[in-house]
Amino acid sequence: MTITTARPVPAQETWVDRTPLLLDLDRQAVRGLLSALVGGDDQRSLPDELARLTDREVTVLKAMAAGSSNAEIAAELFVSVATVKTHVARILSKLGLRDRVQAVVFAYESRLVVPR
Question: SS in 3 state form for the chain?
């Protein structure tokens, strides 16, 4: 099994310097690695509605709830803005939401993100 990183990490970078979005991606990578090593399924302890979303869509929803724009999310995830727009559209569709504002409210009400 080969493990690669999504982006090179500079030697001088510390955990304090990492953004919450990158830390979330790190948690997902570790969870996936542990699941592959143990051979079990990756069980998420999310509300039923959120279980319909992929891990990437959950990451995008968290970023939306944090106030990130499509361009900011795209830069953090190393994807195009069009890809982020597709993720946002699928999130809205899967959760039956009308717009981005409802998605952010949903993220807080479902305890996916908690106010600081």
Answer: CCCCCCCCCCCCCCHHHCCHHHHHHHHHHHHHHHHHHHCCCCCCCCCCCHHHCCHHHHHHHHHHHCCCCHHHHHHHHCCCHHHHHHHHHHHHHHHCCCCHHHHHHHHHHCCCCCCC
Phi, psi of 105 (to 5 degrees): -60, -45
Backbone angles phi, psi at 55, to 5 degrees: -60, -40
For residue 91, give both structure tokens: 């999130």
Single pTM value for the model: 0.63
> Mean pLDDT, consecutive 10-residue segments, the chain of 116 residues?
54 58 64 62 62 94 95 96 97 96 93 84
Residues 6+ apart with CB under 8 A from 65: 103, 104, 107, 108, 112, 113
- The Cα angle at residue 47 between residues 41 and 52, in degrees rounded to 5: 65
